[in-house]
Amino acid sequence: MDCYTANWNPLGDSAFYRKYELYSMDWDLKEELRDCLVAAAPYGGPIALLRNPWRKEKAASVRPVLDIYSASGMPLASLLWKSGPVVSLGWSAEEELLCVQEDGVVLVYGLHGDFRRHFSMGNEVLQNRVLDARIFHTEFGSGVAILTGAHRFTLSANVGDLKLRRMPEVPGLQSAPSCWTTLCQDRVAHILLAVGPDLYLLDHATCSTVTPPGLAPGVSSFLQMAVSFTYRHLALFTDTGYIWMGTASLKEKLCEFNCNIRAPPKQMVWCSRPRSKERAVVVAWEKRLMVVGDAPESIQFVLDEDSYLVPELDGVRIFSRSIHEFLHEVPVASEEIFKIASMAPGALLLEAQKEYEKESQKADEYLREIQELGQLTQAVQQCIEAAGHEHRPDMQKSLLRAASFGKCFLDRFPPDGFVRMCQDLRVLNAIRDYHIGIPLTYSQYKQLTIQVLLDRLVLRRLYPLAIQICEYLRLPEVQGVSRILAHWACYKVQQKDVSDEDVARAINQKLGDTPGVSYSDIAARAYGCGRTELAIKLLEYEPRSGEQVPLLLKMKRSKLALSKAIESGDTDLVFTVLLHLKNELNRGDFFMTLRNQPMALSLYRQFCKHQELETLKDLYNQDDNHQELGSFHIRASYAAEERIEGRVAALQTAADAFYKAKNEFAAKATEDQMRLLRLQRRLEDELGGQFLDLSLHDTVTTLILGGHNKRAEQLARDFRIPDKRLWWLKLTALADLEDWEELEKFSKSKKSPIGYLPFVEICMKQHNKYEAKKYASRVGPEQKVKALLLVGDVAQAADVAIERRNEAELSLVLSHCTGATDGATADKIQRARAQAQKK
């Protein structure tokens, strides 16, 4: 344990800091880091280097090269820079490289050097050029802040949703600030800058002067400033050699340290651990690295090479041409276990396990001591926690073995934490491998989440490792393996040296029917790469027509899209394709396409019936469908034409169409309608009133109601209305008029073709029993009982039923008898029944 703590450095009495090697860099740099623009992404992210040929002492004719490496120095991409001078580099939260040019244009590159997009920071930046730039991260995304040649600031808090904000002008600012940085307070990005001894805070509307509380006197300039990884704390380096540390709101001072060095540092970053009360700042000069905090002493390291600092969530990464290291505060669990002469439960348990492996009785002594204090559970938890913070696998195993050993003596220790830590460490060790080059710590891994880590492995095209992690952690397929396979397939379609057939077959063999994989998304990526035929082949594997059709339309394969839509049976999808085809093709080609697809033609006709009647007529004409064309003209005659002449002309066209269709019934009916319309117009002219658009029956009824009986009879003869129908019409009309005298004359005009029971029924409907009785006596024997019952003459109805000896009529009369008034009639019927049965 003494050897293990050899690289521990105390900062005050309460914290230790250690620096250990992550990788031995083998990237064969031809330039010193000081001669390059450098950007390293947090969370063990990649490193970008751009040799700066725009420096005055360098040859301007030399084209720069942009190199991207993993954190272990493995090359990921290299490209010749052909654009304008670059002022600053930075990585977004999605691990996209942002290159800020002098003209204010920001170029965005992928991890493998693929150009993604570009955007401009505005005309003002273009006119005044860029002096300096910062890439920063907020909860909304990654932002860019620009300092222009006019000493004005412009920023965007989220490059994914670009909204430029021009910050207020600093009064009297004639030269560039000595240092500046971005702060995030209350979900808003601010600019903090130093001009001489003054600090200015810029928000979206105001410029205010701020003063750090408790700052040592005599400061005439601020040389460097640094904001913490979480934007909660701020450090200021003054020209007096003092480092002030406090909250980012500049309302509270944490501490102040005199480093006795007045030269401006190359870099200054925070080094703090989540949930730790210790605060420290790492300051780097050419050959010296200093860790300062709330203690009178500092920790100093000698830098043998030009180095670069990368602030992290729980420490600082330091890399040079030959080595990549990590500096951080020793976690509490590790400190308690490995501190010299520690009697912490975890330390005793680790010793007990080591003695157990030696088969020494001291193991029992250590174990009993822990148990007597009741701290065995705490000891196991300490060992598990400390294992997570160890970088070396041998130390991880040693601590986990100790935890496992201690668990054996506990009855109800939940195993979940131990199992989860073993899984997490296995994943972390896999991604920390030199060939992978993602040196995440346990704290960073938990903050990043497994889903983001998988996304970053996919971004590096490490698909097999990502799938192995998903299978090992047993993640749901949709979140794990399926998603990774989909990304692999999208990358596969970009390999243009492989034939479309081979790529499609390989993707289908690998993916099959994997749930959560959308072949349409993969096909869209293939189409975006200019491989249309491959996209069509991939769409053949897509089971959902709703996903196939939109992409086929986008690829100008409308006829194939129509076939797919029809196969799906989804009418909405068919309509979508039809409307697209209509706009894409000329009318003749569109109609010819429809003729080859009967279902589509039928659906389009339905659409035209409601939306485009003229197009519907053209369809019928092209198909020589005279029957439907005739029906179309009939509907059109009533829908569009108001003048009688136009309506009759449309009906005549319809009749001609019906004759061509050899539908003589429809043609004759149409001609009769034309005659009726002409007659109705004549009736309106001669008699007044409303006749147009009435049916033939309603026209006759209207004439009768108006007292024009002879005209009604003539109309009936002209249109060959049967006598029975005419008598019904006249009977109903006269009853509605309550013209009983005319009705009686009408009934006596000749023998009724409908009988006289309807007269009785109509009179009773009008509640006129007196008139009804007149006709009841004229009703034939077969219907007389019913007529007498309608007028309420139950006794006479009984006599007729008895006389006719009709059992059904007897039962009908009996059902109308009431006990109080018709008792004698009921008895009479019963006696008649009895006599009939005797016979």
UniProtKB/TrEMBL annotation:
Topology in membrane: Peripheral membrane protein
Record key words, sorted: Coiled coil, Endosome, Lysosome, Membrane, Protein transport, Transport
InterPro entries the UniProt entry points to: VPS16 (IPR016534), Vps16_C (IPR006925), Vps16_C_sf (IPR038132), Vps16_N (IPR006926)
A Pfam family reported for this protein in Swiss-Prot or TrEMBL: Vps16_C
GO biological process, one term: intracellular protein transport
Domain Vps16 C-terminal: 517-835
GO molecular function: actin binding
Coiled coil: 349-376
All residue ranges annotated as the Vps16 N-terminal domain in the record: 4-420
Subcellular location per the Swiss-Prot or TrEMBL entry: Late endosome membrane; Lysosome membrane
Subunit comment: Core component of at least two putative endosomal tethering complexes, the homotypic fusion and vacuole protein sorting (HOPS) complex and the class C core vacuole/endosome tethering (CORVET) complex. Their common core is composed of the class C Vps proteins VPS11, VPS16, VPS18 and VPS33A, which in HOPS further associates with VPS39 and VPS41 and in CORVET with VPS8 and TGFBRAP1. Interacts with RAB5C. Interacts with STX17, MON1B. Associates with adapter protein complex 3 (AP-3) and clathrin:AP-3 complexes.
Protein family per UniProt: Belongs to the VPS16 family.
Function: Plays a role in vesicle-mediated protein trafficking to lysosomal compartments including the endocytic membrane transport and autophagic pathways. Believed to act as a core component of the putative HOPS and CORVET endosomal tethering complexes.
PANTHER family noted in UniProt: VACUOLAR PROTEIN SORTING VPS16 (PTHR12811), VACUOLAR PROTEIN SORTING-ASSOCIATED PROTEIN 16 HOMOLOG (PTHR12811:SF0)
Protein name as it appears in the record: Vacuolar protein sorting-associated protein 16 homolog
Organism: Myotis myotis (Greater mouse-eared bat)
Lineage: Eukaryota, Metazoa, Chordata, Craniata, Vertebrata
